[in-house]
Amino acid sequence: MKIKLRKEALTIPNLVQDLNGYTIMHISDLHFKEYMKKDETFNNLILSQNSDLILITGDFITSDNDIVPLLDFLKKIKARDGVFATLGNHDYIYSTISEHFIFSKIRGIRKNNVQRLIESLSGIGIRMLINDSILIKRNKSTIFLEGTDDPVLGKPMISDKDANYNRSDFKILMSHSPDMLYLPDFNKKSFDLMLSGHTHGGQIRIPFFGPIVTSTKFTQKNEVLGLFKKNNTYVNVNGGIGHSALPIRINCPSEIVLITLEKI
Q1: Is the pTM of the predicted complex or chain greater than 0.85?
Q2: For residue 241, what are the domain limits?
Q3: Strand, helix or coil at 201?
Q4: Could you tell me the CATH number of the domain that includes residue 81?
């Protein structure tokens, strides 16, 4: 399994000294298949970076038949301040290309046991944030981390401002699809960084044209892969690890992203 490590540095005005050099590992769209557990590339790459925080933005599985081997695959990943995640659309439904285009009209798309997935991931130390938030402490400083439900099949909500948000030094939002940027709820708070996936970067990218399919409703073509700034929020859209339909990637390698916070 070939995985690219994309490194990004965020220069933040007035970043508190405790967070200068803080590293965030962003993983997305694993779409785990059992054959992947035989390949150590994923775990070796993650562990070698010794990140402060690991954040996973959904689509752990395609089928819930893969939950047990998935847990064995992910149980090694660790970070100083923890591993946190939110859900993606494929965590809710089993939908291969044949299911989606052929069989779904006949028998409907099969639902995954999403509650079992949540409980299983929590059991190996991956804290799920689904319309929920947490305050992460680093010395005398704090990071506010919020995760939404999947914008495609879930009911994503961002809570009104609270005490933890107001007293934090850096604010992060996880939401599986970058379409969250265009939903009214996004404007409830101001975030320094938003992390998403879902698009797979298009999986197939044509030179001078870009992605053929983005799997989004509102996100612009130039916003489906990479780091950009939207108003005052840095947004990282991860190209992901696996695939959900055609088992190919062209000009769009699997990736993990390492983000470093830097004080100006």
Answers
A1: yes
A2: 4-263
A3: helix
A4: 3.60.21.10
Q: pLDDT, tens digit, for every residue of 181-211? A: 999 999 999 999 999 999 998 888 888 888 8
> DSSP assignment of 152-189, as one string?
TTS----PPP-HHHHT-SEEEEE-SSGGGGGSGGGGGS
d(CA 59, CA 29): 5
CA distance 146 to 162: 12
Question: What span, in angstroms and rounded, lies between the C-alpha atoms of 259 and 53?
Answer: 10
CB count in 10 Å sphere of residue 92:
23
Classify burial at 169, counting beta carbons within 10 Å of its beta carbon; exposed 0-12, middle 13-18, buried 19 or more. middle
**How many domains is the chain built from?**
1
**pLDDT(98) > 80:** no
